[in-house]
Amino acid sequence: MPRTGSGLAGLRDAYGQNMSGLIPATGIHIVDDGWWLALTGVPDPSYNLALIHGSDVRKNTSDVIERILAEKHRSVIMLAGLGLGAGTVLSDAGWVCVGSSSLRMLPNSPSELDPQVKVLDEEELGAARGLVGEIFNVDPASAALVYTASSSEGHSRRSVIGLVEDGALQAAAMLSFGHPISTGWAGGTRPTSQRRGHGMRVLQQASAIAFAEVGEGSLCFLASDASNRLYDVAGAEIVEYWQMWSRPRWLLGS
Asked: For residues 17 and 123, which has the higher predicted lDDT (pLDDT)?
């Protein structure tokens, strides 16, 4: 995707569209001019997200804050592009900047099938939910939302893939397919199985599966400090950084 202002805006909008793969029927999913909102309703703020990136960013930020508070969901508001100028709106409302994440992009690419990486069935999804809880300390409700059966509902199709070795699930990730990008969520490897190349194998197969699903395009992730090294080795480029804001008591679990 071109690195022009309109190209980046289109990428940010596409990321928001792909959030539909996470949002249940009871949730809220809105993609509008210069912002999007994706509220799953689960307790973990990481799964109730908004991005402000263009248009009237101060008004958009105020409107998103009002909607989140009305819904009473612990959330994270992200700022990118022109949206970075709305930090004062958030701070004046009692929100704090909690860091930033790099938006990483890896081209969809066909590759040989890895027989140990597969789309998980319902029985295996139970193990995946336990895995995401173990890796990210995610509550069961949030884990059940992310690692759920493949679906074509909403704007994007969704699948959960995992690496099964020695009869046990070692690594997994949720994929949401779309154009011009697909997105990856909650990817991780069991702590006792790390440093064995499992994450790279899942990432390579995610790129291949995205190619099989939608053809040319890219796979995007919001990287954590823990995952940056993997993306560096895989050659996933840094597109930009998204600033993260939330309310202190939400992050403390109260």
From this structure: 17
